[in-house]
Write a structure and sequence with these properties.
Length: 838
């Protein structure tokens, strides 16, 4: 008889093995799992003497009267739960707010920590028995593991905001609303019925099949392949077993999350966090042990679980692993902190969860620099994490990380913030130089190519994030955009790079979400956030509208006369506003600062159209720029990125970060610049340039600040040439003995009303709070400062000249109330001379 029983057991086990999916390596064997709470169990929580295995959950008699419950032998908790919610979840809010129900309540009778694990309804016919246990927590409840508020406990408590949502209807309508969920098909996900046995079963509910704990977990199964690590009772693979394809869910290959969350298919499969050709770094032994990952697990196999945990640290949002500001290790509670999830890997080797970070940008250290984006909630005006995707207008907002302008500061500057996911969509970023590249063949990096043929096309690290393209009602400097075209999605490999595309195609489109009137009505105060540049630096007290500044009007390209740049042309009266010219001391004269003048801009939004011929330069004169901007064929047609100037410090002669990553995360320099920029930037003597000067990382100082350099007095290398004096930059250095950029150029060189960013103290206007055409620096040798655009300025332009045709008489006072002198005598001998400018 015993032999027969053994045979039956062996046959049963064989049949169970045949019933398991190929490659799943999971069997139903509760006796050899942590759910064997009998004295024979292998776990730390078990009975001191009770030998029955099933009795802790089931009884054949006197079971709880719970619909669909499997002869349940425990009371249900009467606790009130705080359920998971977020602005990006599209499940029924009424169902979610009702809290856990259905079979999930069975799991919580142990896992919420409110009831002793040994308490059962009946044991051997005796009601209401408390089975003596060992290894339990206070009062015989579930132990707290690494800590009750950590992500490494299965005593979930009654606060379920940090746990995967349950007890909601999962149907095709939900999948449509979300945009990244697979509709239940009855094969992978669905409600069980005769002949229908989905891999992930939903529990029948009043409005259709509901997601419950038992959808993902089967409390009786275990993994037979020890190399895969603990299975966590998951019905499907805990990890990605083969390179994701982005197509239909593969039971054998795909991580269990992808059974429901398709994450835009190939967009996730080829992302930098899922692509085996990119995310091949492995977790350290300590990190793997804490997470219960197999030894040497690569990031791509961890997949979703590298950044998310279905039962994460309390205080984290959107199930982000270690996503709080807790200083404990592992984190215990705390406030939401998205960046902490990213810092698990994007940090120096000593603090990273990875064994090798050579190819992983160290973002954390940049945010520790003196000037940095206010990434911490404590650095933001609200004092808490305001960032919230899934807000604003439109459908499927969560999948594209859409956020309402109000949360960026529009209408309430206290909402201004920055988080990693303001600029990056971690489900879609790719390690390619262009956002629309074929990510199956990664590049050496995900940031732009800083080489000849330079463009402003968005790189792979910006793929799939949101942005804005300004729409203008006028072209004059000071004309703010009237509206913005919102960008979302990505278009996939080979997507159009046209600015009018529905998705982000330019880096500046991401930057302008915050640095324009899209995100505010009144410009924010400089220094109002932690890590920011102090107010008053370079006489800047408020942020400037960079969408206004960088506008590149098509009608202002090249070298031409314009009438709509914002420069003044007309009659000047002295005293200002006097009634009758020539009477009562009213002096009038006409000025024209529009002839040979046009708007100037760094080519961030569009090129300048000012090629070598327009500049009256030859192909051997491109040495005024440093590589890669000195390619002959590119002058006038090339564009650039915001991050060519903003980011961590770079070498003296280029903008490639010296050691940190590309991107405006942080810098040792004010305004998160890659070099020094102030009223003293220039040269203290001929050939002695300001150390680490920002301008000279792209503009070769030998052409501007050295009378004997490449651009010596006799050589023609810049547009500031003529009058028989040759290179007029070098000429000024020779005569004055030093030079400062802001003497003649605007102090915020994004864009300007005059060509070549030239200040004109004969025509100070609304940008400085004055009427257009106002002359300043009157009968004094003192410099003029009126931030943000005028800092230590001295230049007065009477008439603008075309490139290469400047003369000393182009400069000087336009007339009263200035001294009215021009040319060399004005510069050197008059009471407005600049011979001793600081």
């Amino acid at each position: 008889m015993a032999r027969f029983a053994s045979l039956v057991v062996m046959i049963a086990l064989a049949v169970l093995g045949l019933l398991q999916p190929v490659g799943a390596a999971k069997i139903s064997d509760v006796r050899n799992t942590k759910h064997n709470l009998s004295a024979s169990g292998s776990g730390t929580v078990k009975a001191t003497s009770e030998s029955q295995v099933c009795v802790f959950c089931h009884t054949p008699h006197a079971a709880e009267n719970i619909p669909a419950a499997p002869l349940w032998n425990r009371k249900l908790s009467g606790a009130t739960y705080t359920p998971y919610t977020s602005s990006s979840i599209d499940a029924d809010t009424v169902e979610l707010s009702a809290g856990p129900g259905g079979t999930s309540k069975l799991c919580l009778s142990c896992h919420d920590g409110t009831m002793a694990i040994g308490n059962v309804n009946v044991l051997n016919g005796t009601p209401n028995v408390s089975i003596p246990m060992t290894g339990t927590g206070t009062g015989g409840t579930m132990p707290v593991g690494a800590g009750a508020t950590t992500g490494f406990t299965r005593n979930l408590g009654v606060n379920l905001t940090n746990d995967h949502p349950i007890s909601f209807t999962y149907d095709a309508a939900l999948a449509t609303r979300d945009g990244e969920l697979r509709p239940p098909d009855g094969t992978v996900v669905g409600t069980r019925s005769p002949g229908v046995k989905p891999l992930l079963p939903l529990q029948p509910g009043p409005n259709g099949g509901q997601m419950q704990c038992s959808t993902c977990h089967d409390p009786h199964i275990r993994e037979t392949d020890a190399t895969k690590g603990p299975a966590k009772f998951l019905r499907l693979n805990r990890f990605q077993e083969a390179a994701p394809t982005g197509g239909a869910f593969s039971q054998n290959s795909d991580i269990f999350c992808l059974a429901c969350h398709d994450k835009a298919g190939q967009a996730w499969a080829l992302s930098a966090h899922a692509n085996p050709a990119v995310a091949d770094e492995t977790f350290t032994a300590a990190a793997a042990s804490l997470r219960e990952f197999p030894t040497n697990l690569p990031v791509w196999k961890a997949g979703c679980l590298a950044c998310h945990d279905t039962h994460t640290v309390q205080g984290s949002r959107r199930l982000l692993r270690e996503g709080t500001d807790s200083a404990a290790s592992p984190k215990a509670g705390g406030n939401p902190a998205i960046e902490e999830t990213c810092y698990q890997c994007h940090a120096a080797l000593a603090s990273s969860a990875l064994t090798n970070v050579t190819s992983v940008p160290n973002i954390k250290d940049d945010f520790a620099l003196a000037r940095h984006m206010p990434i911490k909630s404590t650095e933001q005006l609200s004092g808490g994490e305001v960032h919230d995707i899934g807000t604003g207008t439109g459908t499927q907002r969560g999948k594209d990380f859409v956020e309402a302008p109000a949360l960026l500061g529009k209408g309430n500057l206290n909402n201004r913030h920055v988080e990693c996911t303001d600029c990056h969509n971690p489900h879609r970023v790719i390690r390619n130089r262009l956002f629309n590249a074929n990510a199956s063949t990664p590049d050496a990096g995900g940031t732009h190519n800083h080489t000849a043929g330079h463009t402003n096309i968005a790189s792979g690290v910006l793929k799939g994030i949101t942005g804005v393209e300004p729409v203008y009602g006028g072209v004059a400097f000071g004309s703010d955009p009237t509206s913005f075209d919102f960008k979302r999605g990505d278009g996939g490999a080979g997507a159009s790079t046209a600015k009018g595309s529905a998705w982000v195609t330019r880096e500046y489109q991401v930057c302008l979400k915050c640095h324009s009137n899209y995100a505010y009505d009144t410009p924010p105060l400089l220094g109002s956030s932690g890590g920011g540049t102090p107010s008053g630096t370079n006489s800047v007290t408020r942020y400037t509208n960079q969408a206004m500044e960088f506008q590149a009007p098509a009608g202002h390209k090249g070298e031409l006369t314009t009438t709509d740049s914002g420069a003044f042309a007309g009659q000047v009266r002295n005293p200002a506003g006097c009634a009758v010219c020539g009477a009562g001391g009213c002096t009038c004269y006409n000025v024209n600062f529009q002839t040979n003048n046009h708007r100037g801009w760094h080519p961030v939004m569009d090129n300048t159209g000012r090629d070598l011929a327009t500049r009256q330069m030859t192909s051997n004169q491109t040495s005024i720029w440093r590589a890669p901007f000195n390619a002959v064929a590119d002058v006038g047609t090339q564009t650039m990125y915001c991050t060519d100037c903003h980011g961590s410090n770079s070498g003296a002669s280029d903008v490639v970060p010296a050691s940190g990553p590309w991107g405006p995360h942080g810098s040792a320099n004010n305004f998160i610049l890659k070099g020094e920029w102030s009223s003293t930037t220039g040269a203290s003597s001929s050939g002695t340039y300001t150390a680490n000067a920002l301008c000279f990382k792209c503009h070769n100082p030998a052409n501007y600040a050295d009378r004997n350099g490449i651009g010596s007095i006799s050589n023609r290398t810049t547009g500031f040439y003529g009058g028989g004096k040759g290179n007029l930059h070098a000429h000024h250095v020779d005569k004055i003995g030093r030079i400062r950029c802001t003497w003649c150029h605007v102090a915020v060189p994004h864009g300007w009303k005059n060509k070549a960013f030239l200040v004109n103290l004969n025509d100070v206007g609304p940008e400085a709070g004055l009427p257009a055409g106002t002359q300043v620096r009157l009968n004094t040798t003192a410099t003029y400062t009126n931030g943000p655009y005028y800092v230590n300025a001295v230049l007065k332009v009477r008439t603008f000249a075309t490139s290469g045709n400047w003369n000393d008489t182009n400069c000087g006072s336009a007339g009263a109330p200035g001294n009215g002198q021009s040319g060399r005598s004005w510069m050197r001998d008059s009471n407005e001379n600049c011979a001793n400018a600081p």
